[in-house]
């Protein structure tokens, strides 16, 4: 079973326990099934639990920046950012804080940052040490640095860390718990640093890879989700004729003509001409 570590920026307030547990369980299940589709699988899991979760909502009116997922439960508004390979960690936190300023005064705004906890930063100009783990950079450097800022609308930020299966893992150490001056805590497993490697790309015989090659032959218009869906349907039909089925769930939903699922699948691929990460 995959471990999911957690850390709160501040001691209180915390997310409602039902949302917290759903997020942890959803991340664990998504990573066990296919970490590359974490966005999509977490969205589907939360939706299946009856949670009001939305995909890629704008952070601010008139701005193109969006969060990966948004959860609205009663008066609680949670902006969720998922970083599988990229290192845009400071920008993710800024987006959460910007979104929090739009929440009505009677509501509570939270952020949730989901990151691999066994991958290195790989950029010494940001972290000071390129071998520093992303988890350590966020929980020991970045969030403690801003913990004393007053007047922010954001109530708290939850960080969830999972073990990325795409990189070699460090040796498992003893369980540990760390606490900041605001009482934020994390219980998890210590891991040694890893050598940075290039992130995975869609295979040539995967459905996403076929869509990319179709785009290279017959470029889609920038931002044209509907045409990309049609391209994916076209390529999946070709794969069917070849006796291949690399995206089983997509084919099942295609046969049901489930356009909503196919749209989420397309956006979850983060194609360069639609919503690159």
Describe this structure in words.
It is a single chain. With 277 residues, the protein is α+β, with helices and mostly antiparallel strands. The protein is built from 9 helices and 8 strands. It has helices at residues 17-34, 38-48, 89-100, 124-127, 134-146, 207-217, 225-241, 248-255, 259-268; strands at 4-8, 53-55, 69-73, 76-82, 108-116, 154-162, 172-179, 185-191. An 8-stranded mixed β-sheet has the order 2-3-4-5-6-1-8-7, with helices on both faces. Helix 1 crosses helix 2, helix 6 (207-217) packs across helix 7 and helix 7 (225-241) crosses helix 9. The longest helix is centred in the N-terminal third of the chain and has 18 residues, at 17-34. It is globular. Residues 168-200 have low confidence and may be disordered.
Describe this structure in a few short sentences.
The chain is of the alpha+beta class. It contains 9 helices and 8 strands.
Give the neighbour order of strands across the main sheet: 2-3-4-5-6-1-8-7
Compressed to H and E, one letter per element, the order equals EHHEEEHEHHEEEHHHH
Q: If helices are DSSP runs of H or I spanning 4 or more residues, what is the number of helices?
A: 9
Overall structural class, as computed from helix and strand content, comes to alpha+beta
Strand composition percent: 15-25%
pLDDT < 50 runs, ≥5 residues: 168-200
Mean pLDDT: 82
Question: Kindly, what is the distance between the CA atoms of the first and last residues, rounded to a whole number of angstroms?
Answer: 28 Å
Tell me the helix content.
25-40%
Largest sheet: 8 strands, mixed
Shape: globular
Radius of gyration: 19 Å
Number of strands: 8
């Amino acid at each position: 079973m995959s471990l999911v570590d957690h850390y709160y920026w501040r001691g209180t307030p915390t997310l409602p326990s039902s949302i917290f547990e759903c997020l942890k369980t959803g991340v664990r299940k998504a990573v066990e099934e296919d970490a590359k589709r974490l966005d999509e699988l977490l969205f589907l899991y939360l939706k299946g639990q009856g949670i009001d979760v939305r995909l890629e909502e704008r952070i601010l009116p008139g701005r193109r920046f969006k969060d990966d997922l948004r959860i609205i439960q009663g008066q609680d508004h949670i902006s969720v950012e998922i970083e599988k390979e990229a290192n845009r960690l400071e920008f993710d936190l800024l987006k959460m804080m910007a979104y929090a300023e739009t929440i009505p005064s009677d509501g509570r705004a939270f952020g949730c940052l989901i990151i691999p906890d066994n991958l290195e930063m790989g950029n010494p100009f940001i972290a000071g040490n390129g071998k520093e783990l992303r988890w350590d950079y966020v929980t020991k450097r970045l969030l403690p640095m801003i913990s004393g800022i007053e007047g922010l609308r954001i109530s708290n930020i939850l960080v969830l860390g999972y073990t990325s299966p795409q990189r070699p893992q460090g040796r498992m150490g003893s369980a540990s718990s760390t606490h900041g001056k605001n009482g934020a805590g994390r219980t998890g497993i210590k891991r040694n640093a890893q050598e940075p490697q290039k992130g995975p790309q869609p295979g040539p015989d995967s459905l996403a890879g076929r869509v990319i090659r179709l785009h290279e032959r017959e470029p889609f218009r920038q931002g044209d989700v509907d045409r990309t869906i049609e391209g994916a349907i076209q390529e999946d039909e070709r794969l069917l004729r070849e006796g291949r089925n690399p995206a089983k769930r997509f084919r099942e939903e295609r046969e049901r003509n489930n356009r909503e699922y196919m749209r989420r699948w397309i956006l979850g691929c983060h194609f360069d001409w639609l919503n690159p990460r």
